[in-house]
Fold each of these.
Amino acid sequence: MDSMQLVTPEIGLMFWTVVIFVLLLVILKKFAWKPILKSVDDRNSSITEALSAAEKAKAEMEHLSANNEKILQDARLERDSIIKEARAIKENTISEAKNKASSEAEKIILSAKAQINNEKMKAMTELKNEIADISIQMAEKIIKSELKDVKSQKKLIEETLKNQMN
Amino acid sequence: MSSFSLKNFFTFLALFLASLIQASASQTSQESLDKTTYNPVPAIMHHISDSHEWHFWGEGEGSATIHLPVILWSKDGLIGPFFSSKFHHNNDDHLVVKIGAHNLVKVHGKIYKLNDGQQHATFDSEHHLLNATLPIDFSITKNVASMFLALFFLLLFFGISGYKAKRNKVAPSGLLSFLEPLVLFVRDDIVKPNIGKNYQKYLPYLLTLFFFILMNNLVGLLPGSANVTGNIAITLVLSSITLLVTNISGNKSYWGHIFNPPGVPLALMPIMIPIEIIGIFTKPFALMIRLFANISAGHIIILSLISLIFMAQSGLGDIAAWSLSPIAVIFVLFMDLIEVLVAFLQAYIFTLLTSLFIGLATVDHH
């Protein structure tokens, strides 16, 4: 009889089992399973989000560094062009200055030559005058000495005239 | 190496138990009439059966016992509730307790209502009650009280965890960090792989089922506790819920497989269809028997090992009992640890198979 009792389900016990199980299901569903599973899912999605955000930030960083590289490259090119330009300007300036200087020098030389010429002409004129004076004086003397006879006088006149004609 | 020694240990255990059983069997056969030899069966049966009071230790009026409320339902209406202490730990089948107009007697742990006008219980020669009927017993028995205790623990633990999960948005801590992996284990390793994409609908039920069985298994292992999941009424309810959920959620192809099994010749249909219909019931029936038998067997083994001491005392004397007791205690401890494993294992198997049945009933065949 005892062993039969072991495998004979009691209706009252079944009733209480149903009551307790349903109670447990209703309460735990609302107060345990939902919040626990929701927190797990939220955590999972937040981890996924954080990972994708990190990935995005990494890509952005790469993009930025590529950008930086480009800016640097541009700067380098600009620097080179600036240096080139400066060099050209410098060369220009130098050559211009050289040209100017040489033209100035030429000018100076020219003016100096002109002046020298002037001075030379002046001196030559003075010298000519002097020579003329001296010549006249000499001529006077010569004439004085030469013109002692008529023949020589005549010859002189002729010669002078000949010269004058030329 | 360890598995080898474990195997040795099991062999030793089996031989030891066999020799003891043989010894006691030969003894009982020799002295089958000797009433002084301790018979452990009534005590074991008493421990694994349900009762109207929660008995811890001691005998009679001086024992440590919690008296539980008795509620009966007869065709005349509700009787009670009253406390089981009215029966005074009494095994006297003739004690009549008067509740209102009803005369009640307790025979073999069951409370009977004497027929109207009867004042005394009368028995036939095989000790069957003649002049009484058996009302439906809705008492808060030891098993019901134990289930309420498990309910309390579950609500406490998961209430705290659920509250924490709601408030806390970072990593789990404390109790939640212990229970969350278990919940996720049930979801990700039991429910999801077996049910598939519709698993969300069944998840609350299966989680509740797992933790209900687990908690009752574990509460049942406490000293002095009830044998809740080793009671057929409780496993019958759980497997009936499995039966209902499986068949209510069964889709066209599930019923098609039962009433029109594909690939079966027409001549075999008269055999196959009844087999398939029986199959609907055998699956939950196996669940019911498996849980009931595993938990009851665990309790019986532990109680038997303890009973060895008393058997030795009555059969071989005090010295034998004292020298046997350390061995019995070690074996009981070992069995208790195995029972902890079994508590988890049976909760796992019951939930796994229920998920599998639901999965088979809801799977899409394209």
Amino acid sequence: MSGETKFAFRTENLVKTYGQGDGQVDALRGVNVEIPAKEFVVLLGPSGSGKSTLLNILGGLDKPTSGKVYFNDIEVSAMKDKAMTKYRRHNVGFIFQQYNLLPSLTALENVELVTEIAKQPLPAKQALEMVGLTDRMNHFPSQMSGGELQRVAIARAIAKQPSVLFCDEPTGALDSQTGRTILNILQDINENLGTSIIIVTHAVATAAMADRVINFADGNIVDIRTNAHKAKADEIEW
Amino acid sequence: MSSLDRKLFRDLRRMKWQAIAIGLVMALGVMVLVMMDGLVVSLEETKKSYYEDYKLADIFAPTQAAQSQVLVELAKIDGVENVQGRVRGSILIDMPNSKTGVLAQALSLPNQGKAQINDVFLSAGRMIAPDVANEILLLNSFADAHNIKVGEAITAIIGGQKQQFNVVGVAQAPEFLFAAMPGELLPDDTRFAVIWMQQRYLEDITGLAGKFNEAIFLLDDDADTTNILTKIDDILDPHGGYGAYGVEDLVSNRFISEEIKGAKASAQALPPLFLGIAAFLIFIVISRIIQAERQQIGLLKAFGYSSAEIGRHYLKFIIIIALGGAILGSVAGVYGGLELAGVYQIYYKFPFLEFRVDYQAIFIGNLVSVVAATIGGSYILKNIFKLNPAVAMHAATPPDFSKSIRFGSWAKRLFNQPSRMIIRTLLRHPIRALGAMIAIASGMSLSVAMISLMASFDKSIEMSFEVIDRSDAMVNFVQPMPIDVVAELSKIAGIELVEPFRAVPAILQNGQLTHKSLISGLVAAPELNRAVNVEFEAIPIVETGIILASALAEKLQVGVGDDLTLKIRSGARPTLNIKVAAITETLVGSPVYMRLASLNKILDQGELISGVYIKMDKSQQAAIYDELKSTPYILAVSITADAKAAFKKIMDTGAGAVRYVMAIIAFVITFGIVFNSAKIAFAEGGRDLACLRSIGYTKGEAAYVLLGELAIVTLVSLPIGCVLGYYLSFATATAFSTDLYKIPAEVNFESFFLASLAVVVATIVSGWLVKRNIDKIDLVSVLKSE
């Protein structure tokens, strides 16, 4: 890699605590991390280790108790609510384990929900094409399988052409075959659109796909490693 | 405490505001029921005790004059328990602050001992001492209105001479609960005076030494009143009997009975309405709350809790809210009833109040609350229990919108995605949306009806005093005068129009149905006191036949063209048959009109009049009243503006006051309904909102989806509320009308506007409250929750 590395995210002493007194939980205990742009990053770690909390803070869904988060050198942690909304609207996409589609909108309309407000969106149909759902785009969520729902969620997330895609256990509710399809799509997006992808997962095998694997334990990073060779999603053993 | 009970209390705490809102709506429904029923029961009991304790006569028999020996004969009538003769006269009191003086009724009390019939309640001072000529008791309300204290003196004009009387006590009596001037139907404390004095002195003043001009009777419990009335009339006829009448025709009693009847009618009509709407709301809200608990129910079933156990758990939850509200409402209702009864006590001049709590109303109110809530809850629980736990728990299955409408390309241009969400959500749950609309519309209709009622009261006053009675004053003569005085009075400077009338007591009879009334003889086309039709257009006083008020025509069951027997109770007391020529619409009283000339012809006493209506130049009224006051043949002058003010006071303080209370309650109920709808919509749509926020929608844009739904529901409710309110207004106007006055249904733009405004304001406030919840959504926890 030549020249200066461009970082998508940089954090300084990121602390997040929930509750007070005896009930206080330290979810993040001073996390310092730099995540280069356009990488496929996997956050690993046991439940409660803080990986999801970091993801939520990076994505602007949550705020740190103290410490700083920079996105392309802009301090996300200092943003007021309006700026935060804009940040989510234009820069980041989310994919959840529970899909979180709006049941009252069709697949296409769920994607259009984003294209209507984004600055330079992909055409909604093109986004659905990328996840291989053109034939199901006029179906409502209730008429689709879990894998299809997650593909709609991905299409919705990438339609705004975000710089980063956050995925919180994207395959957690899916069978292995469908899970692999989803990971395939994510890898495609990373490679072809240059979108950074940050995935939180329990599935250790997913790590083989990553440029960078960040291991969490007890509210902090225990190690970061980079893969010399990235596996294809199809090669992963579950 | 079991885990489920702990969950119960935590759930209640979590939903405390919503629980409170639901409880309060229910409380208001129950409160109206308990309050109104308590009020009515208390008024009836108080009236009954007052009448019994102070021995109000069962029959009154006025005559011109009869020797006291006649009483012996009257006492022999079968069923008469006691009979007394008393003297009733009119005395003009010279009040320094009255333009016209006040015509007081003077009543005799026995020379010795307490009155055995029609006793008085002494509220201050002492009873009259025997053998002291100028001691009197004065009616409490009049003394209060003029600030006359015990120990002061009043001046009366008797036979043109001023005479002083010492007020040794102020008193009230069951026969004067409602104090209205003779010939007027509405009470006015400042102008209605009663003086009690010893019989022998009143005999002297009235020239009735050794005689009486009113016999009063107490009857045995099982007495045949109709038969006794006939016998009394037969005995008193030779002595100039005016016709005996039962206590039910006593003006005061009629008025108060009608007022209580009116309160009773509203107590029967309004509370079920309020309670019904509150119950409906509970049903809707509870069913939606339970629906939202679906996953938890699945979870509990998965743990091995039986449907019965879970059902009991949720029913407890429901019943705590419903019963909490109902109990609060019962307590508030009892206190409200007590307060309101206090207002009525003063208004009706009861010396004491027997407040009764209506336990039946409390029971019904609580029962309705619990049943409505239980039905709402059970209905939904039943559907949830049918599902197996895995399905019930699995919220990830998105609600099915596949049958929802598709938007064509034109619609896509018209509606953005959030708007489509609103439309689809409404259309997917049409019953639920309709339920919310009907609930809001019902609440609003209550407001429309209550505001309309206020307008109706105003309309009633306007019609009575600007359309029917347009005079400035009514002048009553001491005795009928030749019609020539009209010309004489017209000459007084400032008097613009003088219109004569003759008032004659008579009994109208159609078979078994009779009515005692004053017949007003009027000129052919009156300008000042007019008969009007349903459209409030003046109708002419025809030469032959009689014109009856619609309420009276109904009472006597006669229509235009039917024959009536007319027994005149004055002069030669002729009896004749007469045709009903027209029916007139009135809002106050039940007048009977005839052409003046025709009435005089029947009486055969010459062209006589009892008084005149006058219209005057207001700038000269002081001089005019002075002149009238000093005219010897004029007994009293009633100023129309005073009557109007008195009427307005009745409307505002009596049963009429209830409408303000009801209007406020209606507004609160409407707000409760709207607020709950907003809250529930938030509870159901929280996840969608969080989802929108995570994608990058602003708080405002996310709120639009939720509040847009509420706005549409509200907007559609407005016209429905107007229509429901329109019909409800007729029902409430009828409920508030009595035999003595009629409240026309007056649904105007103002009531629709105000009620709509109230709903819109309630929506905005509820929206604002819910918007605060939206702003506080914890995105992470909602999005990651199952």
